[in-house]
Amino acid sequence: NGALYTGDIFTLFVFIELMVVSSVSLVAVSDNRLGLEAAIKYLFISAMGTLFLLLAIGSIYTTFGTLTIADIAQKLASGERPLLAEAAAVMLTCA
């Protein structure tokens, strides 16, 4: 699983988007119209998740100044826990 090997949040975002694109393509490959309709619905639903994910990534970068997971963990362990970081964690969970 590529999500386990990533070192930063942007690479995790790219990995998730690649999974979405490949999943939508697999759903769309169908002989009937229902497959294409399901793929379009899936694409719109995943776009909403992507929006939350991008908002969370932007909030994390604004708060910590980095997207590296190790640096973020180090800053959180040192006691730096602003409200924006907690909001970003909620958005990441929702995405």
From TrEMBL:
<feature type="transmembrane region" description="Helical">
    <location>
        <begin position="42"/>
        <end position="61"/>
    </location>
</feature>
<keyword id="KW-1003">Cell membrane</keyword>
<dbReference type="GO" id="GO:0005886">
    <property type="term" value="C:plasma membrane"/>
</dbReference>
<feature type="transmembrane region" description="Helical">
    <location>
        <begin position="12"/>
        <end position="30"/>
    </location>
</feature>
<dbReference type="InterPro" id="IPR017059">
    <property type="entry name" value="NiFe-hyd_3_EhaH_prd"/>
</dbReference>
<keyword id="KW-0472">Membrane</keyword>
<keyword id="KW-1133">Transmembrane helix</keyword>
<dbReference type="Pfam" id="PF10125">
    <property type="entry name" value="NADHdeh_related"/>
</dbReference>
<protein>
    <submittedName>
        <fullName>Uncharacterized protein</fullName>
    </submittedName>
</protein>
<dbReference type="InterPro" id="IPR050586">
    <property type="entry name" value="CPA3_Na-H_Antiporter_D"/>
</dbReference>
<keyword id="KW-0812">Transmembrane</keyword>
